[in-house]
Design goal:
The chain is mainly α. It has one domain (2-107). 86% of the residues lie in helices and 0% in strands. The chain is built from 3 helices and no strands. It has helices at 2-22, 26-36, 46-109.
Length: 112
């Protein structure tokens, strides 16, 4: 499950980068109107910009969702490993205590 979310996360991040780089900024249209192109470009074609904006919004939303999912998975793994390590340490302490008790009882059984 983690690998699937990670693959989706990488693909969506590349899509966000590509979509942001393809879009024109609002300042680029104003600069073109004052000498770099035809004067009608200030109000440019909104059809492609609307599609790119919507696609970017969807991609960014997926990016944040996968980021949160990966963070949740990582934190649950950390909790599980911490719980396991505490249980192992406790069992080792119990074994050491039992070994000491057994060594004391054996030494008491030997006559002087």
């Amino acid at each position: 499950m983690e690998n699937l979310i990670l693959i989706i996360h990488v693909i969506v991040s590349i899509a966000v980068i590509g979509l942001v780089l393809v879009q024109h900024g609002k300042g680029a249209d104003a600069g073109a109107a004052f000498g770099g192109g035809n004067s009608g470009s200030v109000f440019g074609v909104q059809g492609s910009a609307n599609f790119l904006t919507r696609a970017t919004s969807i991609s960014v939303t997926l990016f944040f969702c996968t980021s949160i999912a990966l963070a949740f998975i990582a934190s649950s793994k950390h909790e599980a490993s911490t719980t396991t390590s505490i249980a192992i340490e406790n069992s080792e302490l119990n074994n050491n205590t039992q070994d000491k008790n057994e060594s004391n009882s054996v030494s008491q059984d030997i006559p002087n």
